[in-house]
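Hi team,

Filling in the usual template for the complex we talked about on Friday. All components are listed, including any nucleic acid strands or ligand strings, so the model treats them as one assembly.

SUBMITTER: L.P.
PURPOSE: interface mapping
COMPONENTS: two
RESIDUES: 431
SEQUENCES:
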Amino acid sequence: MVLSSEAEEFYFSGKPVFDAAGFLDQSTEDELNQTLYQVWQKGGPQLMIITLADLSGRTIEEVSIDLADKVKLGKHREDKGVLLVVAKAEKKMRIEVGDGLEGNLTDLTSKRIIDYIIVPQFRQGQFSSGIRDGALAIIQKAEPDKNYLEGVKLNQNINSFSLSSHFPIIIFLIWLIVMLVISRWAAKDPNRAYYAGRRGRYSSYGSGSDWMGGGGGSSGGYSGGGGSFSGGGASGGW
Amino acid sequence: MKLVSFLLVAFFLVGCGVQSIPKAKNQVEADLAEITNQYKRRADLIPNIVQTVKGYASHEKETLEGVVSARSKATSISIDPSKATPEQIEAYAKSQGELSSALGKLLSISENYPQLKADQNFRDLQAQLEGTENRITVARKRYIDTIRDFNNLVTVFPTSITNNFMFKYAKMPQWDVSETEKAQIEKTPEVKF
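RESULT (copied from the run log):
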């Protein structure tokens, strides 16, 4: 099995988000890292987001199940793990659902999250918010009767797939433009800025109190608990 | 002293595999059960799909009936994972492969019916079918790996010795994709909406 070297390193980082392809702006990535970690701490689904530069000639389904088998998200027998994989070159994505979440996060629901929430935003170049909204929808749909996302601002009402008001979106767009301008201004190569920034943050997060006490091994923080996957979920592309 | 050390080595060698061989065999049976589970799931989806396609393409009688008869043939062949012979497994795999072919034909003719493709119910069923096909693929991959692990234990030293003395299990044949399905897999084009 050959994964791109970025993907092979990912699960040593001990964090929910591994953005090798550079889709996410820093603040969305930070927000997602925090939110997903908290959801997991509260006993909710363990969602991991992995973006890859390319699939190295394999299908998204093959890579996705390999990653899921490697990380084993979710606790053994509880199996509440779910993986969101996005491949930049092939423009494909997949939601890989763990055994314990298949009741709510059916293949159909996963397909809808991809087709109605993530892909439309990707087609408009809004990768950060597309991934963010998709991730939050996954959490919500995985356990709809629990409210793990209390206090998290949801940009989309995923039931009607429409916006409740325009004002927050305008603010969001202004913020997004500001973020893009700052990141372009801060470094000649925007991608390099992400990697440099992330490496720096690894050391501070790794030793910080935020990530400890996760019940994981020596890698600390966000790690799998032996959960199993059966190939459920859905794929899509943009 | 030589006798003691010889006995120790012999004991160690024989001990190897006493647990792992039966465990591996159980895993093979469990993985086979999982495959039949997923194939059943697929079979359960098919009547709905046939009905939906019929609603838009009822004159495609040959293709529709092909799926219905392939499905009833496949569901009539059942295997008991704990006692299945290689011939039974082969017959089972073959019938499922024929069903895959018939399904493939049905889905490809639906390309010619834009209203069918746009039907929300049909799209939902396709999503479910894709999910199930992926589960079948994953279950098969795991089964193949498990058979390989079992065969390794049974044929490779030192667990092979334990097998020769205690269990006498034969090496298991690998899951082989039937000829029709192989041809199907090799030339399936990517379906784009």
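MY TAKE: Residues 1-8, 159-165, 192-220 of chain A have pLDDT under 50 and may be disordered. Helices of chain A lie at 5-9, 26-41, 60-71, 107-123, 127-142, 167-186, 190-207.

Thanks, L.
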